[in-house]
Write a structure and sequence with these properties.
alpha+beta; Thrombin, subunit H
């Protein structure tokens, strides 16, 4: 299991079998801070299955009066019928959101949602859980287009990389004689 020091955010590998049911107290080898590590909850309580993705998403956050209070770009890490997880460089202000993306045919796809949580990661980015506002045809279309775009981009990237690897020839390096002198 990968663990993260709560103080200095260093990352370490710890064997799962060492962690007792009540947890295990460990000490960071870098900053010497002690903290407790617990086994992750094995039960996934999510209502909808998550699909991993890496789509670029624009977001616009509005307050209760409809005033824009934040906007920017994020990366969708996963998506489900109920919501989406975004990683962003800045925190998303609470409220009502409009999410927008383009599919592989450059069609704009957008959907509405509500911010459920926004938490800072150890790397300084933010994870934001966003619940879609209602499940209708528009949400289903948004999810489908994002997944298809991710798969399309991934397959084309794989084909492009594998083609370049097969076409690669060792570079020709001209022989240089040692200078006389």
């Amino acid at each position: 299991m990968i663990i993260l020091c709560k103080s200095c955010h260093s990352i370490f590998q710890l064997e799962d079998r060492l962690i007792k049911p009540g947890g295990l107290r460990v000490r960071c080898s870098k900053c010497h801070q002690t903290f407790k590590v617990r086994q992750p909850d094995p039960v996934d309580r999510r209502e909808h299955k998550r699909v991993k993705t890496r789509n670029l998403i624009s977001y616009f956050s509005f307050d209760r009066t409809g005033k824009l209070n934040s906007h920017g770009l994020g990366i969708a890490l996963d998506i489900s019928k109920g919501g989406i997880l975004l990683e962003t460089p800045d925190s998303i202000k609470s409220g009502f959101l409009i999410l927008a993306a383009t599919d592989w045919e450059n069609n704009l796809v957008e959907v509405k949602g509500r911010l459920k949580y926004c938490s800072k990661t150890s790397t300084g980015t933010y994870f934001s859980g966003i619940e879609f506002a209602g499940i209708d045809e528009r949400v289903t279309k948004f999810i489908t287009k994002l997944i298809k775009e991710y798969i399309y981009r991934g397959q084309n990237l794989f084909m492009a990389v594998s083609q370049k690897v097969h076409d690669m020839k060792p570079p020709h390096i001209p022989r240089q004689d040692a200078p006389n002198g």
